[in-house]
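tool_call: predict_structure(chain=1)
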Amino acid sequence: MMYLHAGADTVIKTKSIVAVFDLDYASQNKDTLDFLKRAEKEKRLINVTAELPKAFILTNDGKVYLTQLSSQTLINRIL
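tool_result:
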């Protein structure tokens, strides 16, 4: 089984990852902002960084992980 190190002490099973999003690009869309706000309200948003997040990871259980790693770095780690 493969895992992705998402930052801090957080690892995610790669088979559970649905998508990786660039936060700067994705946050320009109102629907994405609404999605992130809803995830936070529902306690599904997990911030794994003390820094400014650069990307977020969506998993098949509905969790959303904010990470300081770029989306490209995360994708390279998955591949």
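agent: The longest strand covers residues 17-22. Proceeding to next step.
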